[in-house]
Every structure is written in C-alpha cells, then in structure tokens.
C-alpha cells in the first residue's frame, strides 16, 4: 500500500497550472491538468546547502520565475521554478521560518519566523545583507503570525501577540500606523485583492495555568474571532 504523507505547506505557481507541496526536505509538484497521484519530487538538499527541515511556507515571484521556500531550520531558499535549481540560501531568522512572501514587483522577499519579532526584507538581486527589519510582537508565542502586502504593493501589515496590527511603508521600511485589532493575539492578516478591506484572525490556545507572559500582558483575554476592517481611500489629484 502507498504510504500517505500529508503536505505541510502548499501553493499554486503564478500561472495556476501546478501545485507545489512542501514536505520534510522535499518539494512535490502536481500538475493540475492531470489529477491523481502522479507528481515530481525534488530534494532540497541538492548541493548540501538547502533547507534541512520541514518546508513550512512557499511563495512564488510574480515576475521572474522563482519561488522561495521557508523551513523550520531557520533558512529560506530561492529556486528556479522550471528545474528547481537552487539560487540563494538566506540566513538570519531567529526561529523557524513560518512565512515567505514576494513583493508585487518580485524584487524583494519578506520572511518571518516563529518567536522572532522581526520580518526581514531581502533584495533578491543582492542577497548579501538584509535591507531592513519590520518589528512585530511575537517573541514569546509559538503561533504563526501572518503578514500580507496590499494589492498596490506599497504597504505591509502584520499582526502580533499584543493584539496590534502594524502597517509599514515598504519603500524604506518605515512604520506608518497601527491599531488595536483584538484583545488577544492577532495571528492572521490578509488584504482584500481589490477592495479597501482587510481581515484579521485572533485567538490563543490557553491552558489551566497562565505563563509569565500572560500574567504580565495587558490583553483582556479570549477573543477567538475573525474581523473585517475597512480602510479609507485618499483621493489623489
């Protein structure tokens, strides 16, 4: 009998013709025009420098035929989509990488990690140094805290364990504004693809005994919910 192995992350490629699934140190590629069990498998340890852990996140560049994969080994790797040839390996996240996301023009890559208070910005044309870091409060929670880039590609928003949503200008990484979105950890944020709307998810799994952070936290308590927010649009002359 075939051994059933669950994918740990999934993403369609830019054209929607293939589905990429992340596993432990490997990627499987399924052609959506041929449903079934057939797939191509690529080991990410080719060359000895690829991710050595679970592939937790996959993101495709909208412009240049590349994909980024994040792993729990605290590394992000960039590959050519056509043949899965390794291009770059990025180090710098303090925890296991939980999200990778390309900018709308495909020139920059944003990565976030578990228990890491900074989202890192990388210029994929020159990956020697980190371009800038964006702060968010998530250094004592095991939750994945998600971020998103708005459709115009000018701003990034992220949640945090303090219940805040922070919005940054991506041109230079400056903080623009923030607001209290929940009385609990905001673990998810997503912009609407064309309307001035966004949604947040909040909540935290709690046990009978509070930890030190919860005792010191000013958050009111459980708020397991999904909220929709409307942003005002300024008119440009």
Spell out the blueprint of helices and strands.
Layout: E1 9-12, E2 18-22, E3 26-31, E4 40-43, E5 55-60, E6 66-71, E7 75-80, E8 86-91, E9 97-102, E10 108-113, E11 118-123, E12 126-135, E13 147-149, E14 155-158, E15 164-169, E16 174-180, E17 186-191, E18 197-202, H1 212-216, E19 225-230
Antiparallel strand pairs: 1-2, 2-3, 3-4, 5-6, 6-7, 7-8, 9-10, 10-11, 11-12, 13-14, 14-15, 15-16, 17-18, 18-19
If you had to describe this structure to a student in words, what would you say it looks like?
By secondary structure, this protein is an all-beta fold. It folds into 2 domains: 1-135, 7 Propeller (Methylamine Dehydrogenase, Chain H); 141-231. It is 2% helix and 46% strand. The protein has a 4-stranded antiparallel beta sheet, with no helix packed on it. It is globular. The mean pLDDT is 88.
Distinctive features:
2% helix, mainly beta, 4-stranded antiparallel sheet, SWT21/TCAB1_mRNA_Telomere, Methylamine Dehydrogenase, Chain H, WD40_rpt
Oligomer: single chain
Strand order of the largest sheet: 1-2-3-4
CATH superfamily of the largest domain: YVTN repeat-like/Quinoprotein amine dehydrogenase
Number of domains: 2
CATH domain fold name of the largest domain: Methylamine Dehydrogenase, Chain H
β-strand amount: over 45%
Counting DSSP H or I runs of 4 or more residues, the number of helices is 1
Category by helix and strand content: mainly beta
Largest sheet: 4 strands, antiparallel
Low-confidence stretches: none
Number of strand segments: 19
InterPro entries: SWT21/TCAB1_mRNA_Telomere, WD40/YVTN_repeat-like_dom_sf, WD40_repeat_dom_sf, WD40_rpt
Pfam families: WD40 (PF00400)
